[in-house]
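Exam revision sheet. Question 4 asks you to relate a sequence to its structure. Input first:
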Amino acid sequence: MSLPHDFVSSLICPSTRELIEFMLARTKTAQPAKSISIVNELRPVDLYCYFSARFGSANGTQNLLRNNHSDNLIHWDWTLSCQYGHIAFWGGNFRTDVWLLGDFPFNESAKDDLIAQIRADFANHGKAMSEVRKQLEHWTEYVNPYWRLKRAIDQLLKDVNTLDLNPAQGECIHSPLSLTLASNSQNWNALTANYNKAFGLCFGVRSMLPVLAEAFVNLLIFILVRTDIRKDQRLYDNVIRQPIDVRIKSLHINCVGFERPVDYAHDACRRYKSLINERNDLLHGNVSPEKQSFNDVYFSGNVPVFKEYRSLWQRTVAVDSETVGLPRLNDEVATVEAFTAYLLSCLSPKNQDMVRTVIATRDLARNHEDGRLGILFSKYLIDSATSSDEYDQNNTIHEENT
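Answer key, structure tokens:
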């Protein structure tokens, strides 16, 4: 059966008390329930403004269960009555669930008609909807680049550690003579395969570490930049596009919350500068062959005469390990950690606490009206579905940083 042409226009908004009485009675009669899901066929903000404009404050019983923050399964509930029973609109995290509570002669097949009738009724409440929309705070969410890079680096470091590298084992066990045994040859191949994986992971981490430090600087500017600079796009672009050393030296000038200027001659900054140079050489191949030397050998005609003997390990895996910087990896990680810790130390204690909270959060948000920075939602994203037979909620939880 199709939706009656006047279905939406006939809807009325009962009081919450009436709905509670209806729900209590319903548990005794076990009336049927059907559900329809609306994602973006009608934008949730449009639905919210429409219901607010036409019916006033949300009246559904689910509003009684929500806490006074954004971490809820159901954010708003308008439950309306009609000739067939009640129809509830639940605004969730991923969809608007529409519940038909009663003996409705239609189901999911009437979804398009329902959407069309609601959309058509927008015109009758356009002015009031605009007034409701003006009262809403407009925020835009951003992915925290520092958080994303830190997460990727931590995972790569974890992958390196799971390889259980042991240079001493390679040095002591694997000699040219022992490779005549098939089992030792297989062990050698497995060991070198692990190191080849480690070399690739190490290259990735070392390439990203200076980027991580720069992302931290840019994040400080994003959250602490002076209001007059933030409101002027040209000024903000000028700040963010300065060379990294200029950005660091002028943090206390362009941002609020700094108790003292950043001393670019500080050891933490000096080590960071060296790290940048190392990264540039790594990425652009600006590596002097002389710096990669590992062995001296003489020749008498075509006869090699070694200055000193080096093991198979020393001439192969150990050379590659040193070249890619694997032995220095932990030190370079510590360099970036010391650099970010030093910049934090230049902030007031209150701002230090705020920045620590921000860097541990993936999703940040900015208010369009006053520029306030915010964390709008929990790190857990919760989806819920309700059984039409039992009207019970089944939840799926996704943690953002897993």
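Marking note for examiners. The chain has a mean pLDDT of 85.
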